[in-house]
Amino acid sequence: MCPPHWPYLWSFAAPPVVRNDQYDTAAQSKSRHIPVEVFQAIMKWVPPLEVLKFRRLSRFANACLTDPYLAYLNLSLFVEPLSNRLSQRSRMNEVHVHWPTPLDRIWNRFPQSFQAVYADLALVGMTALLLSDSKMGGQIPSLIGRVNTLLYLALDNCKLEGTIPAEIGHLKALKHLNLSKNMLSGGIPDELGDCESLERIYLGNNKFTGSIPSVLGRLVKLKHICLSHNQLSGALPEELAALANIYWFDVSSNQIHREYSKRLEDNQALVRLLQEQRFYPAR
Asked: What CA–CA distance (Å, rounded) separates 212 from 270?
């Protein structure tokens, strides 16, 4: 014999076809008969790619399915820990690379509670997150800062929008950052200057505005900087003279002033790269 509330639970798995103005009212009326714990216990078995679709049923369903506790219950069943996904060869090397899963490609579009749990379960400890050309869309989640073991972050050509989150500055070990060929906008965050291990930065072919942050001069390990094909303006900061290891510097196709400070002449390697792009010293 079915328990008295079973019909109401079944209605969430197979909701009736009703008009939009009736749908939320009908679902919420039924949901009053369902204990939160029971609803979450059932929904934790639904694959994460499907479970979030049920948020649209009602405010009750949305609150249950965006709860951090439900996120942990659900993802812990369907997400394989990073340690299991790494090959034996990867475990032996410094760089932990794995084949990206479908969830890796869309986790940035989850509710924040799911993003946080996913980062903790599947990404923390990872040293290389390589999702180039994945067309994942959405924005760079601020929770990327949790994965502070990253050495390589490649999200180029992923149809990303929005800004670079300030939490990028938490990635102290990051050596390689590639966010090129997206639709990212806003300014280049000053927090990027906190990524003290950076050797390569590729931000070209986006919609960045504002000036080049002077804090990039702190990144003395930098060898490659590509900021081309953006909408950057202003003068080249004098602090870039400190980039003693610079080998490639591309700021072409922006609105940056063509004159550069004489202080930059202390860095002859940088001056040669600038002159190749038709920059000239201030008089």
From this structure: 15
